[in-house]
Structure prediction request, 752 residues.
Amino acid sequence: MLEALRRVVQEVSTAPDLNAALEVTVDRVRSIMTTEVCSVYLLDDKQNRYVFRATRGLNQSVVGKVSLGLGEGLVGYVAERAEPLNVEAVTQHSRNQYIAEIGEDEFNAFLGVPIIHQGQTLGVLVVQQREKRRFDESEEAFLVTLSAQLAGLIAHAKVTGLLAVSRRKASRTFHGAPGAPGVALGVAIVIYPSVDLSQVPYRKVRNVAREVDRFTKAVAETRAEVEGIAEKMANDLREDTLGLFDAYLMMLDEGAIPKEVVQRIKKGQWAQGALKQTIETHLARFDLMEDAYLRERANDLRELGNRMLSHLEKRNRRRLHFPKDTILVGDDLSLSDLAAVPRERLKGIVSGRGSVNSHLAILAEALGVPTVMGVQDLPMPLIDGGDIIVDGFQGVIVTAPTNTQRQQYRKLAEAEAELTRDLEGLAAAPCITPDGHRTRLWVNTGLFSDVARSLERGAEGVGLYRTEIHYMMSEAFPTEEEQRQIYRAHLLAFSPRPVTMRTLDIGGDKALPYFPIQEENPFLGWRGIRVSLDHPEIFIAQIRAMIRASEGIDCYLRIMLPMVSSIAEVDMARQLIDQCVREVQEEGVIVKRPDIGVMIEVPAAVYQAEALLKRVDFLSVGSNDLVQYMLAVDRNNAQVAGLYQEFHPAVLRALKQVADAAMKAGKGVGICGEMAGNPGAALLLMAMGYQVLSMNSPNLLVVKKVLTSLTLTAAKALLDEVLQLETAQEIKRRTDETLTEAGLGQLIRVRR
Ligand code: PEP
Ligand code: MG
Prediction:
């Protein structure tokens, strides 16, 4: 069964369009289950009805013409209940509805299972038989499993098909999650992993001769590479294994594949796209083969295709042209993809993976680039080069927008710009409530390009400088001197304001290209301070660079440790920091010992706040991670993004406990997670006693507007009230109401 399942899924996934995918499904399921009928009904979004879309065994001539509403007939009943229905004889079921033209009167047994994708019933898969009988458990299990696997493919084929048919002419809307606020209109530039053929976009080329030349060179380079590997391994491998390399060379030489690719290029497709189409056509044929050995050869072909792709890419990547209104699109964009686009050309970002709490989204927000995250089923190859709207408020993108949609989004962008202009007047004033309570509003930085904007918006300090971003953009660990210069520029720019430098925080979703960390469970693995303490040479170079950077300038340096989960880590880190201060002073450099703080990002640190406070000068809550670890919700996973709740009662209690401990110890306490930039949450944090709220600079003025409009007394009353509530939804609603009642409703963020 497992093998049968794998093959159907494979065939459906390589079908060229939705109709072909449905045809393959009904055909294969009927023969595997040896039933007389298999049909698929799919939801038509406009009619809100389940349309009879493909069949084997019933009347094919009414395919596309017959449909059932939700709850109508047995098919509608399956969709309504969203669970399988297995009946011995349809006539005995009260919900049966007779549709003459479909030709099913002679069939008694009926098994229907819903096709559900991301909680939405896309359709119903049905098998039927003349004989009166209940389908047995293994048949039901097979159909349910198949349907669950097909759902994603069908959802994908549905959008891809529509887009392919309309050839970018018809507008389509895709839903993801808000990543960074703002709207943008521009041209989609798809970035794809350079070793993954399946992600390659289709692009048209004019200069066919140049493209053929590029491809021919790539073939020659692949050939040389394969020969080189074969030669190197000649002594170590058995004859039959070496034969594999001959097979590769034959595929390259005997021409079938290169010839087909060239034919496709001549029709105007770029080399990468032509290679993808050719390899995928061949792969589909391999996959249909019964013989396991031959099917295995499909992997060789895929491998060869990816090798040729990487040779094609070597030249192409450097030449990637970013138009002046680039919308960067990719399934799994990295921070370096983002950094590769000149800032003034980058107007928006769309990522197939991740959520608002991913580092990509956080950095995009800092740069003020509207971003949508977690857009699944986006047909990357088809949208490349087309017009696209990014709505980072709602988490929506629109491909090939109509004129009306363009106007609508332009208006939205203007309204946002007006709101920002209105708030600009607040930049210079301190953040003081009408009853005289002052909160420090600081910024989170990472790229030097954040600095000017942060200062313009009245940042009073830096609460989190993400030093790892510089590491991520380098080609090797940066030297102490290189770091010193960058840190010094930051300290000088903000002088005399405080600058909180976080020590290297890699691991989790932050990888260094030159220091790969392979782990099953990276968010529970080697992250942050754990890496630094295991590599004191890297840690010491960084701390020395920070301390030396402060030499001779009027600045206030604070050093902060990420991902602390035990007291021993703080003791070790402090010892190393003290050692660095001593060393630098002994070298004759006149510097002060910086303040040292710990990030509260792990539940264990919440419960050890008092012990931590004995050892350090300040605490700063990293709510992005604290929420993920408290609620056991991966901050990058779009699937569970709805469970990532900053207003969760447990999170608020933990935050209050940390603030109480710091106040009791008379030490500084702040927060530098994204929560600080959420106006409603900021109000609650101020009421809890957080003295420093550090956020991305685009949120500074919005938060200041809220905190200068409401009294501390009102904020404390709200906090007391929401701490009695039992769900995040109630707390959020009550907080939003308070803002609305104060006339600040337009500042409520949709995010979280
Ligand atoms: C946090 O976890 O809240 C935080 C500020 O750190 P990062 O988002 O960089 O993990
Ligand atoms: Mg963190």
Notes: The chain has five domains: 2-165, 175-192+323-402, 197-316, 440-598, 601-752. Residues 197-316 form a domain with the Enzyme I; Chain A, domain 2 fold (CATH 1.10.274.10). The two ends are 43 Å apart (CA to CA). DSSP finds 27 helices and 22 strands in the chain.
